[in-house]
Structures are given as structure tokens and as C-alpha cells.
Amino acid sequence: MKTDAMHAYEIFVRMIVEDRIYLDRRVSFPLICRWIGADRDELDALVREELGFSGRALLRYYRASEPRRLMSKYGI
After folding, report:
1. Which of 54, 58, 74, 72 is nearest to 20 (CA)?
2. What tens digit of pLDDT does each residue of 7-21 get?
3. Where exactly are the structural domains of the chain?
4. 21, 22, 60, 67: least buried by Cβ within 10 Å?
5. b/e string for 26-56 if b means 16 or more Cβ within 10 A?
6. Which of 51, 17, 11 is nearest to 35 (CA)?
């Protein structure tokens, strides 16, 4: 069953922010869309509209920023 785009967006953001799902490199944007029953194109358009990134680019951004976040947190 497909969820509406806004609900899927809310779940996607929670998975990124709260669950930090991006840390598992096996997890892709299409896979997340399948898990939450979202239409990939609709969710991607909404993510791009709200955050200025495609879904895939957002995952790449968070993955790339994680080492910097940890270095800053621990002063290393």
C-alpha cells in the first residue's frame, strides 16, 4: 500500500534524523521508499522541494558529514 507523499516524507526525515539510517551504507533511497511504501518519484520531488537535495543526495550528504560531526563532537 502506498502512503501519501507528505506522510512518507515525515517518516523518511525521522529515519534520517532520529534513526540515522544513513549510517548503513547498504540502505539506499529506493530501498527506504520500498520499506515505507512510498512512490520514489513523489517522495524524491518532495524531499527536493523541502530540503533542496534529492533523496539520494541527502543520504550522501549525511554520510559524508558524519566523520566531521564526530570529530567536532569529540574535539579530534
Report:
1. 58
2. 999 999 999 999 999
3. 5-74
4. 67
5. eeebeebbeebebeeebbbebbeeeeeeebe
6. 11
